[in-house]
Amino acid sequence: GDKAFAQFLTDEIQEEKKIQKHKSLPKVSGGWELEVHGTEAKLVRKIAGEKITVTFNINNSIPPSAEEDTQEQQKPDEQEPELTSTPNFVVEVIKDDTKQTLVLDCHFPEDEIGNEGEEESDIFTIREVSFQPTGEADWKDTNYTLNTDSLDWALYDHLMDFLADRGVDNTFADELIELSTALEHQEYIKFLEDLKSFVKCQ
């Protein structure tokens, strides 16, 4: 059984490498520096007295519904649809002269992706906003967290503009999806390779 499994994985790895779009991770424009630790990626940008950090994790970043819908209508000779990784991401804005970090928890709503027609709509939304002490590893649950569900739309718009002024806009979000998808695929291939070595190990 293990031999067949290893053979299957070898074929699968070859297939995945064939469809791999990026041999190296795509860059995000606007002077963002990328750090990757396993499945977590961090983009950092410094502008006039502020440091902006965007963190996301590719685990569980591929929406499940996309796969189920396409299986039924798929013709046998069609290529599998491209999976897109749309991770939640956290934006931290740190001002040099304060001890607080403004934290904005953002995500890609599933129904928004693919609605390219509407130019005006944002492809990501802010879910929660809070202040956290700068430099502390653990965030406090006792700090007030603003949920945007019940938020005055004018305040929400200002928060979105605040992010856009710091380079976190639709273009950035598109590039983040591209980067995340490439990273997810790279990690998936690495996982298959590790699994193959594990199965072959006697």
Outline of this structure?
It is a peripheral membrane protein. This protein is of the alpha+beta class.
Primary descriptors:
202 residues, alpha+beta, 7-stranded antiparallel sheet, 4 helices, secreted, transcription, apoptosis, complement component C1q complex binding
Describe this structure in words.
- The chain is α+β, with helices and mostly antiparallel strands and 202 residues long.
- It has a domain at 27-58 and 82-108 and 120-187: Mitochondrial glycoprotein (Mitochondrial Matrix Protein, Chain A, Roll).
- 35% of the residues lie in helices and 24% in strands.
- It contains four helices and seven strands, in the order αβββαββββαα.
- The chain has helices at 2-19, 65-73, 153-165, 170-200; strands at 33-37, 40-47, 50-57, 89-95, 100-107, 125-133, 145-147.
- A seven-stranded antiparallel beta sheet has the order 1-2-3-4-5-6-7, with helices on one face.
- Helix 1 packs antiparallel against helix 4.
- The chain starts with a helix and ends with a helix.
- Residues 66-78 have low confidence and may be disordered.
- One of its GO terms (cellular component) is nucleolus.
- InterPro entries: MAM33, MAM33_sf.
- It is a peripheral membrane protein.
Side by side, the strands of the main sheet go 1-2-3-4-5-6-7
Distance between the termini: 13 Å
SSE order, as H and E? HEEEHEEEEHH
What name goes with the CATH superfamily of one domain? Mitochondrial glycoprotein
Biggest sheet layout:
7 strands, antiparallel
What is the total tally of β strands? 7
Tell me what portion of residues adopts beta-strand conformation: 15-25%
| Spatial shape | elongated
Secondary-structure content class: alpha+beta
Overall pLDDT: 86
CATH topology of one domain: Mitochondrial Matrix Protein, Chain A
> What would CATH call the class of one domain?
Alpha Beta
